[in-house]
């Protein structure tokens, strides 16, 4: 007998994009998750887990926003591990990765996709 597990996702409204300042992170409680929202350009916003993958401390929204080439990054404010905002890949320690969430802007509002 084969069973199929169906994964569902939902887009959840987080805030107005204009509430986010470019180059800075903000934390949002979306459902039961703390998500760091990072606006890097007018309509370019990333969402990642607010918990540092190395220490589990809820600090990623206070990370240092930057880039590696054309890839936007965030560095943990604790131990300075650098993560790709789009993929969650850690540039400084391949054993670590930061959970990422898809985002979209609808009518000026930022929405984050969460799995159910």
Which short descriptors sum up this protein?
mainly beta, single chain, 10 strands, 3-stranded antiparallel beta sheet, 116 residues, 4-stranded antiparallel beta sheet, 47% strand
Topology, pairings included?
Blueprint lengths: L8 E8 L8 E6 L2 E9 L2 E6 L14 E5 L2 E5 L6 E3 L15 E2 L1 E4 L2 E7 L1
Antiparallel strand pairs: 1-10, 2-3, 3-4, 4-8, 5-6, 6-7, 9-10
The percent range for helix content is under 10%
Query: How are the strands ordered across the major sheet?
Result: 2-3-4-8
Shape: globular
Structural class: mainly beta
**Residue fraction in strands:** over 45%
Low-confidence segments, given as residue ranges, are: none
How many strand units? 10
Describe this structure in words.
The protein is mostly beta strands and 116 residues long. The protein contains no helices and ten strands. Strands 2-3-4-8 form a four-stranded antiparallel sheet, with no helix packed on it. A three-stranded antiparallel sheet has the order 1-10-9, with no helix packed on it. It is globular.
Write a short abstract of this structure.
The protein is mainly β. It is built from no helices and ten strands.
């Amino acid at each position: 007998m084969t069973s199929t597990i169906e994964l569902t996702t939902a887009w959840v409204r987080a805030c107005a994009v204009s509430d986010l300042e470019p180059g800075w992170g903000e934390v949002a409680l979306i459902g039961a998750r703390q998500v760091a929202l990072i606006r890097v350009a007018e309509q370019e916003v990333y969402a990642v887990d607010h918990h540092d993958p190395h220490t589990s401390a809820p600090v990623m929204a206070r990370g240092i926003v930057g880039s590696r080439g054309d890839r936007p990054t965030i560095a943990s404010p604790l131990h300075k591990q650098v993560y790709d905002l789009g993929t969650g890949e850690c540039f400084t320690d391949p054993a670590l990765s930061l959970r990422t969430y898809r985002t979209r802007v609808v009518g000026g509002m930022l929405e984050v996709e969460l799995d159910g």
